[in-house]
Amino acid sequence: MSNYKPIIGITMGDPASIGPEIAVKALLTERLFEVCRPVIIGDAAVFEDIVKRFGSKAKINAITDIKDARFIYGEPDVYDLKNVDMSQFKFGEISAMAGGASFEAVKKVIELAMAGEIDATVTGPINKKSVNEAGHHFAGHTEIYAHFTNTKKYAMLLVEDHMKVIHVSTHVSLRQACDLVKKDRIIEVTELLHNGLISLGEKNLKIGIAGLNPHAGDSGLFGTEDDMEILPAVEEARRLGYDVEGPVPADTMFSKASTGYYGGVVAMYHDQGHIPFKLTGFKWNSEKQQMDSVKGVNITMGLPIIRTSVDHGTAFEIAGKGVASPDAMILAIESAIQLSKYRSVEKV
User: What is the pTM of this model?
Assistant: First the structure.
């Protein structure tokens, strides 16, 4: 299967964001066409505007059926949803139109993957407020995917070099996140992480499981969740055959994870995992007052289809200026390719 070139569906994200720009820039990376067949899902007029705005020589090939995609470098295929009114369109602004367009692109890429017309999906950044103003009440991409694939057990896995982080909970309040630290859920995400590491080709399957409280509770001095929920989950995971360590105080676990000591780690809540992850992959240039690079891939584990994503937001403040880095989008596409190849081998 070394010559297998999966079809990768890439959503434009919020059209008012950097999403369309990074999608086009990624598809102007010639080496990607050597290993996959990419197609953008969105509004072709938005992408025609992008290439004109930045003086690119790329030629947009608008299609309404995957079968019509040509997959030619320099001529990005765009599955045209015709859902953005360019006379009303403005970069960097929250709007129901932009939110609706981004939501429809996600819904369509899921449909294409579920129908087997594409092999994997990659999502550009969306604005949750715009999506909600359009009448679609979801906390984010992960929840949209879970809903339209009817998936009950899923988790967010972040990937950047040595740092691979899965979360027990994500888009909930911190107060609610503490209540969600339960033995069964920790075992569930540990299994999802183990399977994810294998599918990504990771050889080191040692997993670190973070404590919730300072010093992992310090034998109950700073909370009981570590002893009552996390430790029993670690012990059960070992009985199930997983190579796990924990609960490890989070302030030391992530420093070890960044060196490759762990193949992956389990974070108890959103910011516990995202902050060290973004310190690894996001590089801010204080002189230019902008990011030099924004690296990191978000993979939704547990779905019947493959979904990877950039792990950054819409960056409305630089949308339309031509300075957005496509690094994370390229990495997300490369991860989708790897996962597609692993899944294709599994089916043989």
Answer: 0.86
